Amino acid sequence: MGRRMSCGQNGGFFMQPGGTARLEASKRGMTYYWLAFSMHRQKPNSADDPGEEGEPYKHFPCWGAVQGVPFSLCLEWLDEMMRCRFAQKETAAFACQVRFQQLLLLLFQNKRLSADSASVPDKRGAVERSIQHMLHYCQEMLTVEELARIVQVDRWRFTRLFKQATGQLPLDFLNDVRIERTKKMLAQTDDRLQDIAAHVGFNNEYYLYEQCRRISHTCVLPQSSENWRFLLRKVADYFGRTEQAEEQIAAYEAKAQRARRDLQGIADKQSVACLRISADHIFLYANAEKGFSGSVLYRDLGLHPYRQYPGFTETEHAPMVSLTREQLAHLQADHLFVTFDKWHTQAPGAERDILADPVWSALPAVRNQHVYEVDFLTWMNNGMIANTKKLEQVVQALG
């Protein structure tokens, strides 16, 4: 009579060569993956390493029951392996092998975590092992239940132990790990915030933005201002970094001057508009002194805004104006910078419905392929970092 084992949703089993197993489904049925693979031990490199070419399976570190956690990640890898298992292209076959190796590593690590947890009577070592798992897999959709299951501690006890050891709840700690990764990537790369959010484990860039705001310290400034130079100088003065702030402002001004010279030919002859499009509204940024984008396009870069169409009146206090479709039809700007606002979208992708509208297709910039989609959070923020990125993107598009 063999050993009987029960596997839950994320359970699995490594069976030795020559072994047999019988699978029994519960009343709800069963879906599973069956992976067969061969092992080959590398030939010895010297006389001091005789090797064991005839017994490669002896060195396999993970026989028996294993847990596939995070389960969603295991499913993703398994599905990808199934799709490309008969791939003819070398890159696709290689990708399949890489996924298989990643899956093995994850299962090995989970096995080790479970073994370590069983060897620690008071379970306090589970906190450190769960932290290591978060550091390795923070980009995945981890839950408290999964973390507790990996280190073999009841969920309620795991949360209490984690709070006692770190002063934080597990998911709050995980968010902090993701935010630290975000800060590092922002400093070292030019990746878009939405790409960074996906890489570190946030659902989208808006959630990442809110998390950063939640943990940020609050500094009350004397007045509200759209002048980022004024705000930077105030904050620098508060922290005793006035000299560094002036150096950064001077560097921005020099970069803006170089970009302005590069774009002089376009500024003299062609007009530029910036649109923010949501499912319900179209906003035009055309004020050179106010607004997130107008100050960079029209003041710092000296580009020419397009304002000549029926019904448009620019006021002193309007950083942007709302356009109807009828007004949009009269927008004859030579170049369009467009960002899509997902905040007011009821259905996924609804903010892009305008792209199928004949009014949009008839715009001169669209017909001439002079439309440039830009990152929402970069262009709808006002500061030295955001504005520097705007300078770079405009020069790349128009230069």
Structure commentary:
By secondary structure, this protein is α/β, with parallel strands linked by helices. Helix content is 47%, strand content 8%. It contains 17 helices and 8 strands. Strands 3, 4, 5, 6, 7 and 8 form a 6-stranded mixed β-sheet that branches. Strands 1-2 form a two-stranded antiparallel ribbon. The protein starts with 10 loop residues before the first strand and ends with a helix.
Whole-number mean pLDDT: 79
Biggest sheet statistics: 6 strands, mixed
Helices, by number, come to 17
Question: What is the tally of beta strands?
Answer: 8
Low-confidence stretches: none
Structural Rg: 29 Å
Principal-axes geometry comes out as elongated
> Secondary-structure element order, as H and E?
EEHHHHHHHHHHHEEHEEHEHHEHH
Structural class category: alpha/beta
Report the helical percentage. Answer: 40-55%
Report the end-to-end length measured between terminal Cα atoms. 76 Å
Fraction of residues in β-strands: 5-15%
Short description:
The protein is of the alpha/beta class.
Secondary-structure map with pairings?
Elements: E1 11-14, E2 64-67, H1 71-83, H2 90-118, H3 125-137, H4 144-150, H5 155-166, H6 170-188, H7 193-200, H8 205-215, H9 228-239, H10 242-262, H11 264-269, E3 271-277, E4 282-285, H12 294-300, E5 304-305, E6 321-322, H13 325-328, E7 335-340, H14 358-361, H15 364-367, E8 371-373, H16 376-379, H17 384-398
Parallel strand pairs: 3-5, 3-7, 7-8
Antiparallel strand pairs: 1-2, 3-4, 4-6
